Amino acid sequence: MTQRPPIRATLAQLRSFEAVARLGGVGRAAVVLHLAQPTVSSQLRELASAVGLTLFVPRGRGLEITDEGELLLATVRELFAVWDRFEDDAARMRGLERGRLRIAAVTTAEYFLPDLIGPFAHAHPGLQIELAVENRDAIVRRLERGDDELAVMMLPPADLPLQRWPFLENPLVVVAPVGHPLASRKRLKLEQVVGEPLLAREAGSGTRRAADRLLEQRGVRWTPRMALGSNEAIKHAVAAGLGLAVLSRHTLGRDPARDGLTELPVQGFPIRRMWHLVWRRDRALSRPAQAFLDHLRRGR
Ligand code: PGA
User: Model-level pTM?
Assistant: First the structure.
């Protein structure tokens, strides 16, 4: 095959050519392109000589496109359609590379969320990611105000227009200190546990709410001996022998014994709950939020 020398046409020449063909004259094309008429004329001449074809013939006071010109016009339109798609993609990428992603999560989710965000953050180093960690009721207030675009929680409120996607199990378990007399039993009744001093998360916590609900359903009355404001505070208090507690299994890590903790085999436990990713149905998601959602959905 003989090598053809490449045609040296520029994007600017092609834009002028397309405008002249569409509008039927150099003057009109120059106005639309914000160029001087002689500039458009010389671009047309240069283009015709670069492609080696007659693109227009004079007709009245304007120009008429030739069959050869039509062939180029069809090609140029395809080229521009592809280029426009690239420009759209580039604009979206720029939004993703410089934008901000605001996520809110309940305190139990802080144990796994960094692992979920990690690969996405690595893939988009210019993206600023803000992760707010608070208890369930505080996250509901943030969603009401629209502080964050995405939130991770176990018990989404029913009275907000939310889209929800359950994506990970959140088993709630009864935790005791290693060496506790109940820890050697194969099976425990709920009543045996409730007879022990109990520690609970603060009011407003989803973990607390889920535990309250379960005990209420079983007709068990309980008054926690102590309410503590974080999962870590509860873990330390349990390990120190201050009482038993209901916690998300995710807060315990791979080796609970290292923290002096063990899980008790209590009837009705683990309480099987899910974590949901939620977002406001009445607000459009930003490009970064949508991309993060797509990323999570692809990964599962
Ligand atoms: P929380 O988290 O106990 O920190 O509120 C539990 C949840 O609501 O998912």
Answer: 0.71
Long-range contacts of 88-94 (CB under 8 A, 24+ apart): 92/287
Instruction: Please state the CATH superfamily assignment of the domain spanning residues 172-272 in this structure.
Output: Periplasmic binding protein-like II (3.40.190.10)
At 1 the pLDDT is 58
Find the 159 Cα to ligand 1 centroid distance in Å. Answer: 18
Separation CA 281–CA 279 (nearest Å)? 6
DSSP bridge pairs for 65: 56
Which atom of ligand 1 is found nearest the CA of 152?
A: 9
Atom of ligand 1 nearest to the CA of 107: 4
Residue 11: count other Cβ atoms within 10 Å of its Cβ. Answer: 11
Task: Check residue 275 and give left, alpha or beta (phi > 0: left; psi -120 to 50: alpha).
Answer: beta
Pairing label, strands 261-264, 62-65: unpaired
Angle at 289 between CA 292 and CA 127, to 5 degrees: 80
pLDDT of residue 2: 65
Q: Cβ(242)–Cβ(196) under 8 Å?
A: no
Tell me which residues have their CB closer than 6 angstroms to ligand 1.
106-108, 135-136, 153-155, 201, 205-207
For the chain, the domains span: 1-93, 94-168+275-299, 172-272
Residue ranges of the chain with per-residue pLDDT less than 50: 300
